[in-house]
Structure formats: structure tokens, C-alpha cells
Amino acid sequence: MSASQTMHINHIASGDLWAGAEVQLFTLCKALNHNEGISVSVILLNHGTLEHKLRECSIPVEVLDESQLNSFQIGQQIFQLLRLQRPDVVHTHRIKENIIGSLAAKLAHIPSLRTVHGAPEHRPGWFKPHKRLIYAMDWFTGQYIQSRIIAVSEELKERLKTKFTINKIRVIENGIDIESLAPYKKPAMPEETNEQKSYKVGLVGRLVPVKRADLFIQIARHLRDHHPELPVQFHIFGDGPLRVKLEQLARTLNLENTVHFEGHSSNIHPQIASLNALLITSDHEGLPMTLLEAMALGTAVVAHAVGGINSVCQNGDCCWLVDNNSIESLTHTLLECLQNPKARQARKKLAQKQIQKHYSAEVNSKLYTDEYLNMVSKLNPDHT
Known about the structure:
The protein is of the alpha/beta class. It has 2 domains: 7-175 and 360-379, 3-Layer(aba) Sandwich (Rossmann fold); 178-358, Glycogen Phosphorylase B (Rossmann fold, 3-Layer(aba) Sandwich). The chain is built from 15 helices and 13 strands. The chain has helices at 20-33, 49-56, 71-85, 95-107, 129-145, 154-160, 178-181, 213-226, 243-252, 269-273, 289-297, 309-312, 327-338, 341-358, 361-379, and strands at residues 7-13, 38-44, 61-63, 89-93, 112-116, 148-151, 169-171, 199-204, 232-237, 259-263, 277-280, 300-304, 320-322. The strands form 2 sheets. It has a 7-stranded parallel β-sheet, sandwiched between helices. The protein has a 6-stranded parallel β-sheet with strand order 10-9-8-11-12-13, with helices on both faces. Helix 4 crosses helix 5 and helix 8 packs across helix 13 (327-338). The longest helix has 19 residues, at 361-379. It is globular. It starts with 6 loop residues before the first strand and ends in a 5-residue tail after the last helix.
């Protein structure tokens, strides 16, 4: 593609949630939109926070409401939009969008790729033939229709290798808008001391099984039972289908005054910055945006070393990591973090340097732009 041409990228996503995948998509679109050689448009299947944030950045958005349209109708309308807009590349996110978007792009003679934001779910049993068909179609479109499969971590790439041809998979790690976080950044000098009056520990994420908020709550009880002299308050930022069950667990463990359910926050960055430590208890992850945000903001991180976490944290140089996702292991490591302010400050400095160098939105968008250009040049070798 020549320097005088503008490359148009169309993203297709659900848009119903505002979680890690949506934050990454928004961050990427915003960064791409600042590139004079690229134009961005987005098709969403739901109204919501992602739609509003994209519109605030003057990024064109079409919403095909899946509560009003069936999959066939959505596919038809996506095809018509692609025929009208003629993007150079279609970029899909999540299973339903991968299937419908890639098929519509194929019919419109437009190359497409997908980003896999998290570990693939377990294949459904034979007693769920409808879901098995969906997973089969997702595999087929990824293997035979889409040009590239992007994994957000090396660990996720290894998982995807069991499903897809290895030469179709490339790793592009997530990036964050560092500039937008600057107002919330902690000061360079540590405020914490060993004589600190109280500590604030947080978990940020959807309240779904994989995030293991139940472990977070049980850590609060374990810490209170074994270290009653240490005043720690635990805060859960997020909402989801497990909230009622988790609130019941907190009551059962008599933690009403220790564990606080803060609900969904539309401005989570000052909340993360206010923490002494962010705790990531997930059973598996791709590359959590909250991890990158906490590191950039100067908040210490204690995390289960899954997905891309180990790589980002440089094997524990930037954060506190555990291999065993157990109450005892996480509590012990959290104590190490909270009770050692000098080590906490040293790791936070390394974390901020790591994010600045490798995980900015600019680095992320440059890698995606190179991938888009490669796809377009293969289709149109004269436009390089």
C-alpha cells in the first residue's frame, strides 16, 4: 500500500460488556485512529459502554442489536455494510463475531483476522450439539477463512496450537493508553511504611468463575484469622452472575466489615491507584488489562502466574507471583508484598519501565498495523 493511501480497518465485536477484551479493543481503535494512514470503523452487536467511548473518540460505529436481530439477519447486514464501506481488513473479536464476521468478509472478498483475548473454553459435551456446532464453525473459520489468529500471550499461543495451524498464529500482547493514566499515577516516592495504619487490597474483574473471587474472599478470612494485627480491607470492583453467591460467602465467613463489593466502576483507574496491592486470582488469563494498568499506575500486583502474566512481570521481577493458586500461597505472598515497602517500591519502578517500553498503545497498534499491511500486500502485491 502506498504512502498516499489510507488503510481502512473494520472491527466487529459484541460490545455488551466493558471488560478486558473491550478495553483492549477500544485502546487499539483509539491508537489506530490517531494514525494518519489508517481509518477505523466498528460494528457492534450491542449498545453499551464500548459504543459510547468509541463515539466520544469520533470513531464510526454501527450497532446491529442482537436482541432484535437473529444471527442470519446480522450476517446479512454486516455483509451489506462491508460492501458499502469496503474496508481493507476485517478484524473480529470473540466466537460469534469471528464466525459471522469472517463469513461476511469472505463473501465481500475482504481479508479478515481475529484476536483471541483469553484461553479457549472447554469443548461442550455431546449433549449440547448446538454449542458444539458453534465451536466447530469457530474453528473452521479460523483455520480456513481468516488469514491470521492473534494470541495476546505466548502461553495462549501454545493453547491455540492444539486447534489451529501454527503458522496462522502470531502473538501481539495487549497495550494500554499510558497518557490517559498519568493523572492517576502514584508519586515516585513511596507513601507506605511498615507503620502504616491500614492496607487496601483489591480485585478488579467480572464476577465469573474463572476470576476466582471466592479465593479472594477466603484470603481475607485466612489473613484475619492468622494475622489479626494486620489491618487489611478487601475491595471487589466488578459485577457479574456470581455476585449474590459471593456476597453470601462473605457473610458466611463474617467478613461484612472486611470485604466490600464496590460494583462496576466506569472510572476504575483512580480505584486501582488507591490500592496497596492488586490481587489477581484467576485460574487462567490471556493478558489482563488490569495488570498492565496497575503496573503503569504504580500499584503493586500479587498474581497467579498464568497466561501472559509471568512474561509481563518478568518472572516476578516486577510483581509478586505464585504458581499455586491456593489460599495459603496467595496469602503468604500478599503478606510479603504488604510488609516490605522497600521491595514494593523497587518492583513498582521496574513495572512502570516495563509497561512504558513494551506495553504501550503505540507499540500495540504498530504491531497490528504491520499485520494489516502484510495482509493487504499479499492480496494486492502492487500496493506495497
